[in-house]
Specification:
Shape of chain A: globular
Largest sheet of chain B: 7 strands, mixed
Radius of gyration of chain A: 14 Å
Shape of chain B: globular
Number of helices of chain A: 0
Distance between the termini of chain A: 41 Å
Oligomer: heterodimer
Strand content of chain A: over 45%
Structural class of chain B: mainly beta
Helix content of chain B: under 10%
Distance between the termini of chain B: 37 Å
Order of helices and strands of chain B: EEEEEEEEEEE
Helix content of chain A: under 10%
Largest sheet of chain A: 6 strands, mixed
Radius of gyration of chain B: 13 Å
Number of helices of chain B: 0
């Protein structure tokens, strides 16, 4: 079965620290990849997405993610986190099979200490 | 940008009653909407895919007679939790995408259902 794994369920960082959240998926075909963020008390919103082309994708608020096809990975990175980045981050995969089902990872709760 | 409106944001109901949750796409047409359930400390769990004008597709283990889905127009899908029980208490989230397969999902704000 298709699945998405996020390796860290909880991450605590100090401001200005670098962030990398891991995401691996199990699907051999072409995929569309997403990172969504849910800030406290708010709804899920898109952070960045990859469909094709340059595997290094830049999103909003200084986030970027790199698609490594050989590793089935789509890790999220930010060079220097801020307190306002405290949120829950979800990796999502949409197998490009013509269907619309999107599979989510379990989420990573990030807490940034001021 | 695209907005999905979900209503109500919170609802408390008594065991045995039914609750309807609405999901509307405000500035785009959504041929497909999705309903998720989010358990504490767990991932979003896809419950069903709602297709405009046809029957919803339910994920394995989701009771279609308990979670009734209606997608009567290109901008509205409803989820009705029938004969609710305390174990149905959860956070329900809808999402929608427009016609393009490559478009991202847009999420509603979610509905916190508490069954007493």
């Amino acid at each position: 079965a298709q699945s998405v794994s996020q390796h860290n369920h909880h991450v605590i960082l100090s401001e200005a620290a670098s962030l990398e959240l891991g995401c691996n998926y199990s699907y051999g075909g072409t995929v569309n990849l997403f990172w969504y963020v849910q800030y406290p008390g708010q709804h899920l919103q898109l952070l960045l997405k990859y469909f094709s082309g340059d595997p290094l994708v830049k999103g909003i608020k200084g986030f970027e993610a790199e698609f490594i096809k050989s590793k089935f990975s789509f890790n999220l990175r930010k060079p220097s986190v801020q307190w306002s980045d405290t949120a829950e981050y979800f990796c999502a995969v949409n197998p490009n099979t013509g269907g619309f089902k999107t599979i989510f990872g379990a989420g990573t709760r990030l807490f940034v200490k001021a | 940008g695209a907005v999905v409106s979900q209503h109500p944001s919170r609802v408390i109901c008594k065991s045995g009653t039914s609750v309807k949750i609405e999901c509307r796409s405000l500035d785009f047409q959504a041929t497909t909407m999705f309903w998720y359930r989010q358990f504490p400390k767990q991932s979003l769990m896809l419950m069903a895919t709602s297709n405009e004008g046809s029957k919803a597709t339910y994920e394995q283990g989701v009771e279609k007679d308990k979670f009734l889905i209606n997608h009567a127009s290109l901008t509205l899908s409803t989820l009705t939790v029938t004969s609710a029980h305390p174990e149905d208490s959860s956070f329900y989230i809808c999402s929608a995408r427009d016609f393009s397969l490559n478009s991202p999902l847009h999420f509603g704000n979610g509905t916190r259902l508490t069954v007493t």
